[in-house]
Amino acid sequence: MKKTIYLIRHGECVSNHQNIFIGRSLDPPLTDKGIQQAQSLARHLQGMEVSAVVSSSLLRAKQTAQIISEAVNIPCQSTDKLLEVDLGALDRKDIGNKGFLSMYTQMVQNWEDGYEQVGILDGESLLEVNDRLLPFFTRTLKKHESEAPILLIGHAILWMGFIWKNCVNQPQKIKDGFMEVATFSIIEVGEEGFIARDLNVNPRLLSRKYEL
């Protein structure tokens, strides 16, 4: 039996608005815009039969998950296993600074080139991220065996790394798995492993197309 997982990124939070790198050292809430984005996402998912809603334990993810859980009428849970990638020395730094941005892009390029053991100083490598994600996925899939999808609310770099590392139909570039705020990617799990069916789906754009 194949299982569908929605990888969901939280709505806009204060640090996104401030344009700084944010991993775990700060735990900002959603902005008003972020709440509206999460509500739009929830409307798109409303009425869907799901087997579980699980979020990162960071506030921006939990707030997004709570809005979604009300729409699909199932309680949400949270876990540290879905925390954003630890960005170490890069955390809280200005994305607009060329030096800091270069540190991030070099890390991502290293991951794409196969150097998965590389991370930002005092941060996590892709291998370390995957070491906490895969056991969580295994337990969650075993716990929720019905055909109904599982909704997981997490973070941009977390999901980008997971898709690149684990999907058998790996995207052409690692950045193709990067998700904008309040978007989702659909992953199918079967005998072949993890298969990316749709990446970075924006429900707000889908809604506008529908209205036209």
- The helical percent reads 40-55%
| CATH homologous superfamily grouping | Phosphoglycerate mutase-like
Shape: globular
Unreliable segments (pLDDT under 50, ≥5 consecutive)?
A: 207-212
Largest sheet entry: 6 strands, mixed
Give me the Rg, rounded. 16 Å
Architecture overview:
The chain has 212 residues and is of the alpha/beta class. The protein has a single domain, classed as Phosphoglycerate mutase-like (Rossmann fold). It is built from 7 helices and 6 strands. The protein has a 6-stranded mixed beta sheet with strand order 3-2-4-1-5-6, sandwiched between helices. β2, α3 and β3 form a beta-alpha-beta unit. α2 packs parallel to α3 and α5 packs across α6. It is globular. The C terminus is likely disordered.
Would you spell out the secondary-structure blueprint of this structure?
Elements: E1 3-9, H1 14-18, H2 32-45, E2 52-56, H3 59-72, E3 76-79, H4 98-112, H5 126-143, E4 150-154, H6 156-166, E5 184-190, E6 193-201, H7 203-211
Parallel strand pairs: 1-4, 2-3, 2-4
Antiparallel strand pairs: 1-5, 5-6
